[in-house]
Design brief:
The complex is a heterodimer of chains A (about 120) and B (about 270). Chain A has about 120 residues and is of the alpha+beta class. Chain A has 3 helices and 4 strands; from the N terminus they run αββαβαβ. The relative contact order of chain A is 0.26. Chain B has a 5-stranded mixed sheet with strand order 2-1-5-3-4. Chain B has a 4-stranded mixed sheet with strand order 7-6-9-8. The chains are: A alpha+beta (about 120), B alpha+beta (about 270). At the A-B interface, helix 3 of A face helix 5 and strand 7 of B. Chain B: Keywords: Acetylation, Apoptosis, Autophagy, Cytoplasm, Immunity, Isopeptide bond, Membrane, Ubl conjugation. Chain B: This is Autophagy protein 5. Chain B: GO terms for molecular function: Atg8-family ligase activity.
Chain lengths: ~120, ~270
């Protein structure tokens, strides 16, 4: 999709999987397995020092949004938008696993976040 | 094609009968207000059709609740406004007892269960997001991205104003595919009560060229749950399990372009 370089490698060790096309069998994960979520800043949003996080698949998007808000120490009045595929904002109650299974690639789910509406 | 149009029209015209009453704790008058009866399009969203109900009940609530967001409950369960009405109906009522009995609340908003919906624009942006997600699955997002803003608006206005032709003039582009291959993936959600829906990457054809059916999906994603007597409802219809998923996606999807499949266990 795009090829922006990671400035600082994530501190946590991440096992990279070979690039692959979406195949149901390849990316099916056990219900309780944690999913690698890569959080990328867009627009004027502050960058997170640690970008890759392992998140339980059953956690909803709203939980991740709250997590980012806390990590960035945003004010209650600040808005925060989270996008998948750089195109759509998933509902806050959508679970991470559903997004990973549908839009994950390379063993992880990429979420873009920004403080103003970036897409759509 | 003529037959197809009839099916799309039939789905579009689907309505559910609803009876709403005001929660007794939110009623500040001596006698309870009359219930409010209405027919709601299956394809719409609750905030789009509840303005009159809200106005009707506000007269019976206390002063401090006048600006509160109204939320609805079916048999103890708060209803998610961002699911299409037809999906909520199939999941929570299933037509067992008509009209579908709902309770309107103005206090104790269940923030744990529901997203707030302060304005109509929130519904519109949720709808557009769903369209983008669905097209991301069907065509890698190419069709929705190449559309103009006015096309997106036309889809939304067509739905809001119950204009079938206005909506389908644009939506048919989102349904384009080659008859041999179908969509890249089928945007679907498999709903069951009390659990988040299941959404997976599904192609319309198996590796050997066989058409993937509704039965295949159920077998793959709820092999341990499925039992004799369970019902699987799409748009109020119990579709045969051998129906190809591509056909279902083209004909029985909601305007958000997702095929919403409701699983109702035999014993609840």
């Amino acid at each position: 999709m795009e090829d922006d370089k990671e400035k600082s490698p994530p501190p946590q060790e991440v096992v990279a999987e070979p690039q692959q096309e979406h195949k149901e069998d390849d990316i099916k994960v056990a219900a309780n397995k944690k999913i690698d979520v890569l959080l990328k800043a867009t627009g004027d949003a502050p960058i997170m020092r640690k970008k890759k996080w392992a998140v339980e698949g059953e956690k909803p998007v709203g939980w991740v949004t709250e997590f980012i808000r806390k990590y960035l120490k945003l004010d209650a009045s600040d808005t925060l938008f989270v996008y998948v595929n750089q195109s759509f904002a998933p509902a806050p109650d959508q679970i991470i696993r559903n997004l990973y299974e549908s839009f994950g690639s390379d063993g992880k789910l990429v979420l873009h976040y920004c403080k103003t509406q970036a897409w759509g | 094609m003529a037959e197809d149009r009839e099916i799309l029209r039939e789905v579009w015209d689907g309505r559910v009968p609803v009876c709403v009453q005001l929660a007794s704790e939110d009623c500040s008058t001596l006698s309870a207000p009359d219930s409010y009866y209405l027919m709601i399009p299956r394809l719409s969203y609750l905030p789009m059709v509840m303005d009159k109900v809200r106005k009707h009940f506000l007269r019976f609530t206390s002063q401090e609740l006048q600006e509160a967001e109204m939320w609805l409950e079916s048999d103890g369960t708060p209803l998610k406004w961002h699911y299409p009405v037809g999906v909520l109906f199939d999941l929570h009522c299933g037509g067992a007892a008509l009209p579908w009995s709902l309770t309107a609340h103005f206090s104790h908003f269940p923030d744990q269960d529901l997203i707030r919906c302060p304005t109509r624009e929130v519904v519109e942006s949720h709808f557009l997001s769903s369209l983008k997600e669905a097209d991301g699955l069907k065509h890698r997002g190419q069709i929705i991205t190449n559309m103009q803003g006015k096309d997106h608006k036309q889809l939304w206005m067509g739905l809001c104003n119950d204009k079938f032709d206005q909506f389908w003039a644009i939506n048919r582009k989102l349904m384009e595919c080659t008859p041999e291959e179908g969509f890249k993936n089928i945007p679907f959600r498999l709903h069951s009560l009390c659990k988040p829906p299941i959404q997976r990457l599904i192609k319309p054809l198996a590796d050997d060229g066989r058409k993937i059916t509704l039965g295949d999906i159920l077998q793959d994603y709820m092999p341990n749950t499925l039992q004799e007597g369970d019902r699987v409802i799409i748009q109020g219809i119990e579709a045969p399990r051998d129906t190809p998923i591509q056909w279902l996606s083209e004909h029985l999807s909601h305007p958000d372009n997702f095929l919403h499949i409701c699983y109702i266990p035999a014993q609840t």
